[in-house]
Amino acid sequence: CGGSLACSSLLRSLVVAHVFDHLCLTTSTSAAYMGTRAILPLLALLEVGLAFGGLSGDQGWHAVPLFRKPAVSTGQLELVEEGLNVLRAQTEPFAIVSAVGPTRTGKSSILGRAFFRGEHENIFEVGSGVTSHTGGVWIASQPVEVKVADGSTLRVLFIDTEGFSGVGGITSKTYEANLFGLVYLLSSVVIFNTMFPVDASTVASLNAHASHALSMLQALTDSGQLVQKAKPRLVWSIQSFNIYNLHNSGMAATDLLAALRNASRASGAGIAVLGGEAASSSTWLVERLFEQQELVTVRRPHASDEVVANLAKYNSTILSADYLHDADQVRAAAMHDLKAVHRCKEAGTVLTLSECTPQPLVGTDFVAQVSLWLKHGYILDRSDLELDTADEAETLNRLRERNRKWFDEQCATLNEELRTKFYWYREESADNAKLRDEAVAAVDKMMKGFHGAALSRLVESGVFWKFPGKGAMLVEAQADQAMQRCKETLDGTRRHMEGWTASHRATKATPAQELFEKLEAEAPKPSGGLSYKLVAEDSSCFSNAGGAGDIHRLHLGNGMTLEACAEAVSKKCECGRGFEHDKGNDGYCGCGMAGTPNTDCTESDDDFSYGSARYIMFNPACLNQQSEARKRALEQANAAAGGEDGGGALAAAVVKDYDAPKKRRQVCFDVYD
After folding, report:
1. DSSP readout, 330-371?
2. pLDDT confidence of residue 634
3. Predicted model pTM
4. What's the rounded Cα separation, in Å, for the pair 228 and 358?
5. E strand map for 179-281
6. To which H or E segment does residue 270 belong?
7. 515: exposed, middle or buried (C-beta count within 10 Å: 0-12, 13-18, 19+)?
8. pLDDT of 479 over the 50 cut
9. Does the structure show a pLDDT above 70 at 615?
10. C-beta separation of 279 from 259 below 8 A
11. Are strands 342-344 and 358-360 parallel, antiparallel or unpaired?
């Protein structure tokens, strides 16, 4: 069927009808009844096989990494482009189903047997030893299409994760806390997978992970990143479950979940199922985090220990029918009322479904959201700090590099703020002079806050709790050095902007036409001669005609020297007389468009573009075309004005410097306080 749901449905109906017709035509009624009972398991297998018809062999399903383990145990998970590309490729609504839980409990197996049974049932690699096999977070390379309650089709991506409390790899409580928190945020449904028997320690473990997810939500809220999504659903699968223990207690799976939820008050039959004196002093946090919780018992895959230990070697046809039935129950529970990843219109953190009006996200938007969650949601389990045996010198060196980068970023922000304020208050007046002085004082005050801000950052890092004295001394010394460097930078910017303000006034006092006439007088007379002059520094050919965007500037390319830029301008007669070159911006080259108010790059001559230089060129090769363009512009201006007096004013605006309305530029900046 190649993944076609309609084809699968039709084929299923035809085969079932054929089997029953055959039984009724060839046997007596009683024999047909017995034959029907005998063939029902085969029909069930047929249903399962057709349900997975979308996973045909030529689709190339495989698992790719989404998050990589950090280099140090208490570090931040690292995004992997291969997995992000899977998310980015989703252009239609999609859901995510993830499996988490303790190590070596069969998470990878249950994902494969429940959702990819057949050729791809080992899509997530399954271990066969006692050490953790899956590392980090892995995602299926392609979604599976499933039908949801309203009859529509929804794409579903599946995620497998490294088991908690594993051996044979670098792990920590911090790593597991961040892994669970991120998977919680990513998922539409979380499958929490454990092994039978379950007791108070299992409940406490799930509760601890729930508390970590709440801590991550709090960290995101504190940083202004509200998680506007509905709560996911929880499917708790308990593997190798002895179903007779449940029957002997006269309980169903829902009763067991209730007993686990209220473990601290459990008694009688509940205690027997839990395997001893179940007690929990914690609040059951799961209900606060998940919209619904459902428990699914999963029986042993096979009677043989060898088969169970090496499930990846054996296909589903030899496994227990009970196990496969239970795997189907896991699938049904996960697919029930499945919702696409989304953002709620309503403000608030993890809302209930009734409170949320979901707006489905496409892959690119979702990746941007995940990046923010990873950046701002990091949490640290303090108990790991005592166990971290990282080399002291290496740790302090890493702190030194992080601090230097942070100081440089803060200084760059202050520098841009000072430059912007000087631009705002560039006109000569007593009020503007006072405002410029206040801007200098303000950035100086913020720079002197480097000490306190850096120490605050240190206290929130793991380094402080390991090396408080040495860490504080390092930050103090670095802050002094950073302040000295930043003061020199800011002083240089102040002098530069004072010089720019003065030269800007002088430039405005000299019309572009006057400069052009000087160039024309000085330029070589033979045809093809080329001559240009610097008009203004920190200035560009930016155009924003009536707020319509940069429409009167031609972009000629990057990677050019000034000479190459001038040569390119001289060969493009669509350019007017003005052009710009920005050496610091990858050698950017642009020009004003001939026959527009920006022909001399003066349409927005009040524009400040740090590092860019504006020139005017005498180019005999293009004089005729430029004149024609100016003539057409005059005619269009006159026609637009109906030949009345207003036309003369508009035409004059085309020829002379264009005095377009200016918008005050603003810069947003952030200094840690």
Report:
1. HHHHHHTT----EEESS-SSSB-GGG--EEE--HHHHHHHHH
2. 60
3. 0.51
4. 9
5. 189-195, 233-239
6. helix 269-274
7. buried
8. yes
9. yes
10. no
11. antiparallel
